[in-house]
Amino acid sequence: MPPGPRNLITDVPGILVGNAADPAHRTGVSVVTSDKPFTAAVHVMGGAPGTRETDLLAPEATVEAVDALVLSGGSAFGLDAAAGVVEALKSEGRGFAVGPARIPIVPAAIIFDLLTAPTWTEPPWRALGRAAYAARGTEFALGTEGAGTGATTANLKGGLGSASERLANGATIGALVVANPVGQVTAGDCPAFWAAPFEEGGEFGGGPLPRAPAALPPTKTNRRSATVIAVVATDLALTKPQAKRLAVMAHDGIARAVVPSHTPFDGDLVFAAATGRIAPENPAQDLIRAGHAAATCLARAIARAVYSARAAEGDPLPTWQDRFGKP
Predict the structure, then answer these.
(1) Tens of pLDDT along 41-63?
(2) Which domains, and CATH codes, for the chain?
(3) Which of 39, 127, 149, 185 has its CA 20 to 30 A from that of 230?
(4) Measured on CA atoms in the order 277, 279, 280, 283, is the torsion positive or negative?
(5) Which residues contact 205 (CB under 8 A, 6 or more apart)?
(6) CA angle 46, 40, 125 (to 5 degrees)
(7) For residues 260 and 44, what is the distance between their CA atoms, to the nearest angstrom?
C-alpha cells in the first residue's frame, strides 16, 4: 500500500513529533506525542540499551497509556531529556492521575553520540527535551535533525528518518527512527541501501542491491557508539500485548536495513504506539498486516535517515549525498 501524504509517522492521525538539536555538541532530542494519552509498548533486541521507564510498558504493568515517547542522543546523560518533557507536560496539567497529583508518563531511549562532540559544562538534554516538546507538530525534517543530529553508521553519517504506509482497512502505520548502528545501512562501498527492495516512490536512491555478503562487513565496534532506536505508530486500537507484538515484528525492519544488526554493542529498541482511532475488523489478521507494514516502514525510514543527512564541519564520516549523490 502507498505511503501517507507526508510519508512521515505523523500521517498517523493524532501523532505529533518535535525535534530540537544542539549542533555545537552534535546531539539532539526527538519527541513523539499526541493530544491524548496513547497505548505504548516496547521491545529490545540490542545488547546495549539505554532506557527510562520501559518496564512500565510491559503488558502486565499498571499504566495503560503514556503521554510521550523520547528518543535522545547523549547516552546515559540523554535520558534527562525525558525530565524536560515531563516538566512541560506537567505544566499543561497532563499525566497519570494519582489523587490530585498528575504524573506524566514519558518512556525514553538513547543513542551514543558523545565521541564527536566537544565537551560541555552543562548537560543540554533536559532543555532540549522541553524544546523538542514545544516544537511538536505534523511536519518535520529528516536527516541531521533531533536525536539524529550526531548519529553515524559504520561508513556514513546517520540521522533521523521516518516513513508511513496506509493499510487496506483504512489504518495508517508510521515509523520514526534514529539510525546510529554498529553496522552499515548501505551495501558496502556502493550507494545501494539494504532497504532498497522496500523503497516507495524514489524516497531514497542508490541503484540495485548487490548480493548480500557472506563475510561480516566493516563495522564501528572499535568505537562502540551504536544503536537504532525507533517508534512505530498506528491509529488502530491495540491492547498493550498487541502493541508489544507490533514492536517485536517491527524489529525485522532493522534487520532488513542494517548489516549486521542487533549486535552486542547496539541498543536496538522499538517503541510501539497506538492511538486507537480505528477498531480492528479482524484483530489477528489486522495485527499481522500492521506488523509487516511497521517493519517495512522502519526499513525505509532507516534508509531515509542516512539519505537525508547533511554535512557539518568536523564530521567524522561523509554523508551519503557527499559520497554518492553528487556527479
Answers:
(1) 999 999 999 999 999 999 999 98
(2) 9-325 (3.60.70.12)
(3) 127
(4) positive
(5) 191, 307, 324, 325
(6) 65
(7) 16
Helix/strand/coil for 251: helix
- Per residue in 110-149, pLDDT tens? 999 998 777 888 899 999 999 999 999 999 999 999 999 9
- The band of 203, judged by pLDDT with boundaries at 50, 70 and 90, is very high
312 vs 187: CA distance, rounded Å: 24
Residue type, 265: F
Which residues have a Cβ under 8 Å from the Cβ of 51 and sit 6 or more positions away? 42, 44, 79, 107, 108, 109, 110, 269
HSE-up of residue 175 (Cα within 13 Å, Cβ side): 37
Tell me the C-alpha distance between 315 and 261, whole Å.
23
Instruction: Please give the single-letter amino acid code of residue 248.
Output: V
Beta bridge partners of 299: none
pLDDT tens digit sequence for 77-93: 999 999 999 999 999 99
